[in-house]
Amino acid sequence: NKSAEILNKFKISDKIYSVQGILFQDSGYDGVPNVSQVGLYSNLVYLSGKNLNLSLGGRINNHQTYGKFLTYSLNPSYNIDFKESENIKIFATLNSAFIAPSLYQLYDPYSGNKELLPEESISKEIGIEINNQKRSLSIVLFEREENPKIIYEYDSSTFTGGYINSPSDLTFRGVEIDYSKKFFNKMDFNFNYTFNELKRGTLQRLPKHSFNESITYYLKNNKQLSFIYRYRGKREALGGTETLNSYGLMDLRYSFSKDKIKFNFWINNIFNKEYVEILNYSSKGRNLRFGISYEF
Q1: 191, 230, 259, 272: least buried by Cβ within 10 Å?
Q2: β-bridge mates for residue 79, sequence order
Q3: Is the model more confident about 243 or about 72?
Q4: Residue 146: partners with Cβ closer than 8 Å, 6 or more residues away
């Protein structure tokens, strides 16, 4: 794979600047034709220095196989400072995207499909963030349209599957909530929740409800102990013929540092819970991992 990018940042005033660039990409591997694409993009940013910020961008992508596609993004935000240590930001996002099928999705001998069309999507978001020195809260409402989505279709009778484009457009909406809090500089609590509601199409493997939470204790001598819980609600299996049950997994992580070396220990799925993540594929039971990192 080869890529090259040229970009330029141009300052228009103390509050406005723009970024323009061009990106060349060429991908391929043995036995598969190379695919190239060129993207020309421009972005205009306004920073008021007080409350209002605005970003407006556009991109023209010329793909060797699928031709030209125009995408855009609009991101306004407004900050409200109640106190020196507390900030509220209200924001919105409107953007479109073009995603070409990967070479694996096109040419894999078992599941590839050379007739795949690229995904095109439009995403809309509106949200609020509240931050201070000890806690933060983010609530985002979203809606996403995809046409045509690339999905993996599995035939349980023949135990074979492959990539196809969804027979209908996909539209879903929902809410994402993120919350974090510090306790006396000795403990961190983090929680995130996602709700997905289908308006049109099929949401394979995407649960209606899911959340993650973690508690991290800061011990003496640069030691940390974390408990992580992951929950996935009921969801439609690949192929749409079955509904997979919900499950929750508990993980543990312990780490400590000595000089410039950091040691990490993980125990995933502590209670060795049985669950199904992908139909007809085995899932990991209790497992241990160990890692070392060195800081130069």
Answers
A1: 259
A2: 89
A3: 72
A4: 119, 120, 121, 166, 169, 170, 171, 201
User: What's the half-sphere exposure (Cβ side, CA atoms, 13 Å) at 223?
Assistant: 6
Residue 207, number of CB atoms within 10 A of its CB? 19
241 has pLDDT over 80: no
Q: Give the number of other Cβ atoms within 10 Å of residue 232's Cβ.
A: 20
3-state secondary structure 10-33: EECCCCEEEEEEEEEEEECCCCCC
pTM of the predicted protein model: 0.82
Amino acid at 2: K
Q: Quick count: other Cβ atoms within 10 Å of Cβ 7?
A: 11
- Span between the terminal Cα atoms of the chain, in Å: 29
- Alpha carbons 196 and 158: distance in angstroms, whole number: 31
Q: Look at residue 266 in the predicted model and tell me its pLDDT.
A: 95
CA–CA distance from 164 to each of 115, 153, 215, 224 (Å)?
8, 7, 41, 45
**pLDDT by residue (tens digit) across 173-216?**
999 999 999 988 789 999 999 999 888 877 667 889 999 999 99
Distance CA 214, CA 220 (A): 20
- Residue 25 to residue 63: CA distance in whole angstroms: 10
The bridge status of strand 16-27 relative to strand 2-11 is antiparallel
Tokens 């996909």 belong to which residue? 170
Distance in angstroms (rounded) separating the CA atoms of residues 40 and 59: 6
Place of tokens 């800061």: 218
E-strand ranges in 159-207 read 160-165, 170-183, 187-200
User: Measured between alpha carbons, how far is 264 from 223 in angstroms, rounded to an integer?
Assistant: 10
Q: Is 106 helix (H, G, I), strand (E, B) or coil?
A: helix
